[in-house]
Write a structure and sequence with these properties.
The chain is an alpha+beta fold. Helices cover 36% and strands 17% of the residues.
């Protein structure tokens, strides 16, 4: 009768190096057990990594001193948006700072050499480039609009980073601007061109795209994620885009607004409050932006003209 395998100690993380496994009291034979996955050489995982984030996290135990995750891998860990054309990219981006170390070379690894002052921070215990350095590093691959969307996310979503146990000073637009003009990077002209259109209150990549389409379509720039109030100053809600003078608010509706009954009821209630107070609420989806945003731009333009007359 075969003896049952010993349990993996709960002190070990989901992904750990074979050396860590042995230090925790597991034999080499136990670490070769079929209940453990080996996504990368020298790494053992309790669960098979299936998502991009899980693959990046699974690689972390392989990092050597002085190495850190960067570029697309860092964006994945931070939850920053990257273009769809990179969804199938499976390489892990690993960087070193300065010239004292050589960037790693291995199958499935994209090694990078970063400037000496590019110092990583710890995110859930994993060394990774800061959101600003991640944005700077991706300029080689992204166009101006993609850098705007990514830059919006960098300066608009910092509030939740401390909750992720990141050793990080929150980013803001001024820091982004200082970094661009202080450092020489590949893609510098695109970074500088993107700066003027980056905003610090954008709530999602689709909101960033919609704002760019509206402004480039000749419409005034709306206030982002702005309170909507009635004539008595009572707050009725917070909307993605607000044209306060015209009493017009715009809301981007993602799938959750359609699939979550509670969110759907909240949306209906908010619309009723807005209309009772004299506001016009315009809702839009991804289909209003792809493939042709012009009808959406025309709709908003007509609404503003009607309300401002």
């Amino acid at each position: 009768m075969t003896e049952p395998r010993s349990a993996i100690p709960s002190t070990l993380p989901v992904h750990f190096s074979a050396r860590e496994g042995e230090a925790a009291g597991n034999s080499r034979g136990r670490l070769r057990g079929r209940d453990l996955a080996s996504p990368y050489r020298g790494v053992r995982s309790v669960n098979i990594p299936t998502t991009s984030r899980e693959r990046v996290e699974a690689f972390a135990p392989r990092l050597r001193p002085g190495q850190f995750l960067s570029h697309f891998s860092a964006a994945t860990l931070w939850g920053l948006p990257t273009p769809r054309r990179f969804e199938d990219r499976r390489e892990i981006d690993v960087s070193v700072a300065g010239r004292r170390q050589t960037p790693p070379r291995a199958v499935g690894v994209f090694g990078h050499r970063m400037p000496p002052d590019c110092l990583p921070v710890l995110l859930d215990g994993i060394p990774v480039t800061t959101p600003i350095d991640t944005w700077l590093g991706l300029a080689r691959w992204l166009d101006i609009d993609e850098l705007i969307v990514l830059g919006d996310a960098v300066v608009s979503t910092m509030e939740w980073y401390p909750g992720r146990h990141a050793e990080l000073v929150p980013s803001h637009l001024g820091q982004l601007r200082d970094a661009v003009f202080r450092m020489r990077r590949v893609g510098g002209p695109r970074l500088r061109a993107a700066l003027d259109d980056i905003r610090d209150r954008s709530g999602s990549p689709m909101e960033s795209r919609a704002r760019l389409e509206l402004v480039r379509g000749g419409l005034p720039e709306p206030d982002l994620n702005h309170p909507v109030v009635d004539l008595y100053g009572r707050q009725l809600g917070i909307s993605d885009f607000v044209y306060e003078r015209a009493l017009v608010a715009l809301e981007y509706e993602g799938d959750v607004h359609r699939s979550d009954p509670r969110q759907w009821r909240k949306d209906i209630s908010r619309r009723e409050r807005y209309e009772a107070a004299g506001w016009k609420l315009v809702r839009f989806t991804i289909h209003d932006l792809d493939p042709n945003p012009q009808p959406f731009i025309n709709l908003v333009a007509r609404t503003l003209r009607t309300r401002e007359c």
